[in-house]
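The instructor's notes for this session suggest beginning with a concrete chain rather than abstract definitions. Hand out the sequence below and ask the class to guess, before any prediction is shown, which regions might be ordered.
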Amino acid sequence: MLTKTILAFAISGIFAATNFAPALAEEANATPAAAARKLSVELNALAPSQKGCMMTFVAENDMATPINKISFELAFFNDKNAVDRVTVLDFRDLPLGKKRVRQFDMPGVKCETVTRIIINDTPICDGPAAGECKAALTTHSQISVAFEG
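After discussion, reveal the predicted structure:
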């Protein structure tokens, strides 16, 4: 009698596992795909130039589709924590899974006075659906200047 009870529990456990396995597999497959959908932009360096300040960014598109053209509206804060300027930078194309280095020489900007940069918007994002670029955006800085999205 005891072996029949144990056998019944074992069989019911197998049926329960079979019913939950597809749901667990589906959830496991969905999580990495959702996590991989990001648009990473890194502030890599600021260097004085003849015009002002050379800004170097590293961008990587890990979204579901390539980006044919993208621009970012950036706000630059000075050493008094005031917005010094707002400008739009054209990052051109960002293919899937490839890192791209983009440099911009900002005339009249002194690198040593830049304390923070914020990405306000993505006015152009050709490729992904509307709003996906801004939603997938992640930012970080390799230098002491804060960089936010």
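Then share the key points. Helices lie at 2-36, 132-136. Residues 5-11, 13-34 have pLDDT under 50 and may be disordered.
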